[in-house]
Design brief:
The chain is mainly α. It has one domain. The chain contains 5 helices and no strands. It is flat. Keywords: Membrane, Transmembrane, Transmembrane helix. Pfam families: B12D. This is B12D-like protein.
Length: about 90
């Protein structure tokens, strides 16, 4: 491994590992929790599934409910600092 893994490559490996794990998480979530994905034969035979509650549960997950109560700012302290009218200068 010494020939292939040099210290300069560690940040790239870390970033690629993070991105790959996010992709695996999203794909796994979609396959097992998305109401549009039909794994068993009974659901695949139906053209349109009547599962509005399941779809809302999938779309309104915990992170979305949490973020809905928060202000839409990335860095509120910096936004507040630069949006204030500084009269001290």
């Amino acid at each position: 491994m010494g020939r292939w893994m040099r210290p300069e490559v560690y940040p790239l490996v870390a970033a690629m590992t993070c991105v790959a794990s996010m992709c695996v998480f999203q794909l796994t979530r979609s396959v097992f929790m998305n109401p549009d994905v039909r794994i068993n034969k009974a659901n695949r035979r139906m053209g349109v599934l009547e599962n509005k509650e399941e779809g809302e549960k999938y779309a309104e997950h915990g992170l979305r409910r949490f973020l809905r109560t928060r202000p839409p700012e990335i860095m509120p302290a910096i936004n507040h600092f630069f949006s204030e009218d500084n009269k001290s200068a």
